[in-house]
Amino acid sequence: MSKVFVVGGSGRVATDLIKDLIENGNEVVAGSRNPEKIIKLDGVSAVKLDLHAEMEEIARIMDGCDVVYFVAGSRGKDLLQTDAFGAVKTMMAAERDGIKRYIMLSSMYALQPQMWSKYKALADITDYNIAKFFADNYLIHNTKLAYTIVQPASLTEEPGTGMVTFGDGKDTTNPISDVAKVLADTLKYKETIGHIIMMRSGKTPIDDALSNVGDPVAYNNAGLTD
Predict the structure, then answer these.
(1) Which CATH class is domain 3-211?
(2) d(CA 144, CA 36)
(3) What is the C-alpha separation between 191 and 59, in angstroms, rounded?
(4) Dihedral through CA 16, CA 217, CA 111, CA 207, nearest 10?
(5) Which of 115, 199, 86, 84 is nearest to 153 (CA)?
(6) Which residues have a Cβ under 8 Å from the Cβ of 6 and sit 6 or more positions away?
(7) How far apart are alpha carbons 66 and 31 in whole angstroms?
(8) From CA 59, how far away is CA 98, in angstroms rounded?
(9) In this protein, which residues make up the domain named NAD(P)-binding (predicted)?
(10) Are 200 and 173 in contact (CB under 8 A)?
(11) Distance (Å, rounded) from C-alpha 211 to C-alpha 120?
């Protein structure tokens, strides 16, 4: 069992993620600017977390946890201070606290900007992808965290199938519950450390996909080549 800190704990993905983490036997501390909106379950503690705060304050709130999930998002309203630098401050805070494991919810092709114009859904959220580009690169190149970055396709409210495709594919959507399940179950597989997992709907059971992720992809060029 791990004590897990969920950044952005009142969001759509976070709600399903927290359920899955508890089901997997973990203890959860969920942080949000609106802690009253965090799902109420046994094993879940809700705390107030403002990503505009100083890094030292964020570290104080996260202290004592073993794992950090970053699933916060401003929906385009606060990209620099939440999606970009807010994420970076949680990485700094994790390292300050001695937390090793860090799992990031990102965006499809966030590290490959040459792909954004090829998909309308990505072109429509270019500013968000820019924020994730810098946050993901900081995680990879400027920390010593045992990271996994999950890059889903467009999120939908459809019921989850428990089936995914990792890597390239034709489907451009993911049910939110499937994204949450991949995030939660990533913690069970040490093989996912150092991986950037691009996911979309597919025909492979999530556990099978996670247990066969293969070797990590090198992004030493910051994702600027095909």
Answers:
(1) alpha beta
(2) 33
(3) 27
(4) -10
(5) 199
(6) 14, 17, 18, 21, 28, 29, 30, 31, 69, 71
(7) 15
(8) 10
(9) 8-188
(10) yes
(11) 32
Residue 38 or residue 171, greater confidence: 38
Burial class of residue 214, CB neighbours in 10 A (0-12, 13-18, 19+): exposed
If DSSP codes are grouped into helix, strand and coil, which group holds residue 169? coil
The token pair at 8 is 């952005």
Distance linking the first and last C-alpha atoms of the chain = 39
So where are the chain's domains? 3-211
pTM listed for this prediction: 0.93
Q: What's the pLDDT tens digit per position in 71-114?
A: 999 888 999 999 999 999 999 999 999 999 999 999 999 999 99
* 195-201 and 163-166 beta bridge pairing: antiparallel
Name the residue with tokens 């995030």.
Answer: 183
Cα distances (Å, whole numbers) of residue 93 to 60, 175, 181: 8, 31, 25
**1 burial via Cβ count (<10 Å: 0-12, 13-18, 19+):** exposed
Q: Which single residue is written with the structure tokens 């401050």?
A: 89
**Phi (first) and psi of residue 149, to 5 degrees:** -115, 120
Model confidence pLDDT, tens digit, residues 181-200: 999 999 999 999 999 999 99
Q: DSSP string spanning 19-49?
A: HHHHHTT-EEEEEES-GGGS---TTEEEEE-
